[in-house]
Amino acid sequence: MMLESLIEGFLLGVGAAVPLGPINILLMNRALRNYPQAVITGLGAMSADALYLSLILFGMIQMLQGGILSYLLSLGSIAFLFFLAYRIYQDRNRHLSSEFKEDRQAKRSVFLQGLFLTLVNPYTLAFWLSIGSYTTSKELDPMMTLIGMFSAIVLWVTLIPYFVHRSKHRISMRVRYILNVFSSMLLLGFGISLIVEMIDWRLL
User: Which UniProt key words apply to this protein (predicted)?
Assistant: First the structure.
């Protein structure tokens, strides 16, 4: 049962990490220019996951379901997605060889971006709630499942940005420009989809 739980947890972690979403767009975009800060961004996102997990374990997650707090989370997510879309678009003409700052303040900033983007994303909350139900229904070992999940996520936020960063020399400025514009449009799209969901929710 422990091995089965570990494997299932790992596969769930892969399923959570791989799909294209706001945090992965941010990770890939950052990895093109600075690998360590891409990893720090991923660790910030993982910290948000750990926080939601803690709330589930202590039975406090219900206070975030529905109501005004859920509405505020969506508003925060929309605002932050639009902000990141603007920043990535603004960065479209910057050369890949130009470096990010390596000071503590810069590292703290990218960590908080990963943390906040994941924390205010309502889909993160829905994911962890579904994981809790899935683990209970299949009678998996909770600890081994979580170890498997976070192992997969750690591998994703360290290995994928590494491969992206190592391939940056093959990317021309023209391609870089297109990738930045495409990334900013995707982030705008995620934000707009949340607005549509909020409007539907208010009309129900």
Answer: Cell membrane, Membrane, Transmembrane, Transmembrane helix
Question: H helices within 91-172, ranges in order?
Answer: 104-119, 122-137, 142-166
pLDDT < 50 stretches in the chain: 98
pTM: 0.78
Closest CA to 120 of 51, 26, 42: 51
Contact between residue 111 and residue 44 where contact means Cβ atoms under 8 Å apart: yes
| Site of tokens 């890949």 | 96
Q: What is the pLDDT of residues 66-96, one digit of tens each?
A: 567 677 777 888 888 898 888 888 877 765 5
51: three-class secondary structure by DSSP:
helix
Can you tell me which residue has the tokens 């603004």? 90
Full 3-state SS string of 168-198:
HHHCCHHHHHHHHHHHHHHHHHHHHHHHHHH
Q: Which of 187, 144, 140 has its CA nearest to residue 29?
A: 187
Could you tell me if 152 and 14 are in contact, meaning their C-beta atoms sit under 8 angstroms apart?
Answer: yes
Whether residue 117 contacts residue 22, with contact meaning beta carbons closer than 8 Å, is answered with yes
